[in-house]
């Protein structure tokens, strides 16, 4: 163990060490301003430039106040004074109600959790149904979106649920399930957009679509039985209409055909009667002018019409005493 006669002997080496450290600190202090200047310059340089994505708009604020919009690309701003918020204006956002997508892909998988707090609703005829729907929206005004709405996602969810409950409550269960689903989508979209415009939110609703509407699990069997009975009723009605459409048009066609044939026959008989009357009048007029000629012509016309219908014809000379010599009984055809 070493012997120390004076306190300086104990702290002598340490004093040399402290002196060396102080010298180094003094040297570092001399180099600190250039390093600080480099850091400040680098911060100013990198803070002065910013980029805006291809589907975004840059909203520039100076001391919190909006000053300008910038398009996609590289831009300059005043460092430490101006701040930029990039807002996606071409992206379509989606909110799901009554269900959640666990994993999207070729075969989409959904969460098995029930969200009855937002999907269980009461219809206008006091029936309870489970409504699942989606809302797709985008930003149409990035400045209004930033400054007028603090929580756009939560705002859209609350308003969408309120509007859907109102619309479902104004319709019957059958209208919501089948009859007016398309109209309900448009009605909810219009009302939702109207409220968002009233709030000056800068958000545009792209589409509202009912995904699935079902009764609660507790009443599904009874509800399915009612639907089956209604389907049987519709089936019977459709079958009756099918037979009606097969028989009635055919009967109407046959009736129309009979009427047309009767009209044609009537028209034909009238025309023939008119022709005969006109012919008789013309003959009468000719007979009045030349009775002998007309009488002979009528006789010849009558014979011309009658003789072809006769079978065997015998021509007898008025000077003959008997008809027997003229009959050739041995010939089959007889004498003509």
Beta-strand content estimate: 15-25%
Helical fraction: 40-55%
What is the approximate shape? elongated
What's the gyration radius in Å? 55 Å
Main CATH class of the largest domain: Alpha Beta
For the largest beta-sheet, the strand count, sense and barrel status come to: 4 strands, antiparallel
Could you tell me how far the N terminus lies from the C terminus, measured between alpha carbons in angstroms?
185 Å
Q: Strand-and-helix sequence, N→C?
A: HEEEEEEEEHEEHHHHEHH
CATH architecture of the largest domain: 2-Layer Sandwich
Number of alpha- plus pi-helical segments: 8
Overall number of domains: 4
- Supply the helix-strand structural class: alpha+beta
Question: Looking at CATH, which topology of the largest domain would you report?
Answer: Tetrahydropterin Synthase, Chain A
Number of strands: 11
Mean pLDDT: 80
The CATH H-level homologous superfamily of the largest domain: Band 7 domain
Low-confidence stretches: 1-12
Write the SSE topology.
Elements: H1 7-47, E1 49-52, E2 56-62, E3 65-70, E4 73-76, E5 82-88, E6 93-97, E7 101-103, E8 109-110, H2 116-119, E9 120-122, E10 128-139, H3 142-148, H4 152-169, H5 173-179, H6 181-198, E11 203-214, H7 220-289, H8 291-306
Antiparallel strand pairs: 1-4, 2-3, 2-5, 6-10, 7-8, 9-10, 10-11
Helix pairs in contact: 4-6, 7-8
